[in-house]
Write a structure and sequence with these properties.
This protein has 283 residues and is mostly helical. The protein has helices at residues 9-34, 45-99, 106-129, 172-175, 188-241, 245-270, 272-282, and strands at 131-132, 135-136, 148-154, 162-168. It has two domains: 48-240, f41 fragment of flagellin, N-terminal domain; 244-283. It is rod-shaped and about 145 Å long.
Length: 283
């Protein structure tokens, strides 16, 4: 065994080991303190990049879920108003059938017509007054076009992940096929003509409601899928970024023991010079 004073190789080795162990100990304490495995880019450069990409997707999925739920609420608002319109149209149809029979006088048909015209005005009023988030839903102008409105909902984390709903204008004239008059019940002949217009309006309302109902179902299933994707992607990110406390505490305990041992070995290595001095004294 060589006995050297100028270069204490054992002490240098012990110092290096102590430095590396202290770095590992510091990293373990950071992980335990923050709950995150990656506190600096140098901790896991590739993992940091992957986790940030996942975070973008997770945040996008979360917003897409909110968008889909907002879209469902919006469409259900429109459907509720059209349900009211449908009920009113059914009452108007009953009045029209009543007016087509010959058992009523002209003055009595006037009463029927007055009620019919009031209901007709209210059907159109609902079309112009139904709104959601300060947007009128049933006037055919929420999107583009005259009587047909297309609304596109972003329901994914990436561009193009969309669902489109078509909502036709539900003003009475539009529902009746774009007529200039909503009809009257003042005579048997006009009542018969009006009855056909009402049937056209009911068919249009039913068609629009069926479309909206289908889109609501589509959005509901899309939301379920988005929740599942978000859950799994969040779990995957957690494996990369979150601290495994069992592993981290074990590593910290190991590093603390090694640190104590390295300190003892450094002290021992520093005593080697004293051995050389002892030899010189005895020479």
């Amino acid at each position: 065994m060589s006995m050297i004073i100028n270069t204490n190789v054992d002490a240098i080795f012990a110092q290096n080991a102590l430095t590396l162990n202290n770095q590992s100990q510091t990293q373990a304490m950071q992980q335990l303190s923050t709950g995150s495995q990656i506190n600096n880019a140098s901790d896991n450069a590739a993992g940091l990049s992957i986790s940030q990409t996942m975070t973008s997707q997770i945040n996008g999925l979360g917003q897409a879920i909110d968008n889909a739920n907002d879209a469902i609420n919006m469409l259900q608002t429109a459907d509720a108003s059209m349900s009211t319109q449908s009920t009113m149209l059914q009452t108007m149809r009953t009045l029209a059938i009543q007016a087509t029979t010959g058992t009523y006088s002209a003055s009595q048909r006037t009463y029927m017509n007055d009620e019919y015209q009031n209901l007709a005005a209210q059907v159109t009023a609902i079309s112009s007054q139904t709104s959601w988030n300060n947007m009128t839903l049933l006037n055919g102008k929420i999107g583009s076009g005259t009587n047909t409105s297309q609304v596109t909902f972003q329901v994914g984390a990436n561009s193009g992940d969309t669902i489109t709903a078509t909502i036709t204008s539900t003003s009475l004239k539009s529902l009746m096929g774009g007529v200039s008059s909503v009809g009257s019940l003042l005579s048997v002949s006009s009542a018969n003509s009006t009855l056909a217009l009402i049937d056209t309006a009911l068919a249009a309302v039913n068609s629009t409601r069926a479309n909206i109902g289908g889109v609501v179902n589509q959005l509901t299933f899309a939301t379920d899928n988005l929740n599942a994707v978000k859950q799994n992607e969040t779990a995957s990110r957690s494996q990369i970024t979150d601290t495994d406390y069992a592993k981290a505490t074990t590593n910290l305990a190991k590093d603390q023991i090694i640190s104590q041992a390295a300190s003892a070995m450094l002290a021992q290595a520093n005593q080697e010079g004293q051995n050389v001095l002892s030899i010189l004294k005895s020479a």
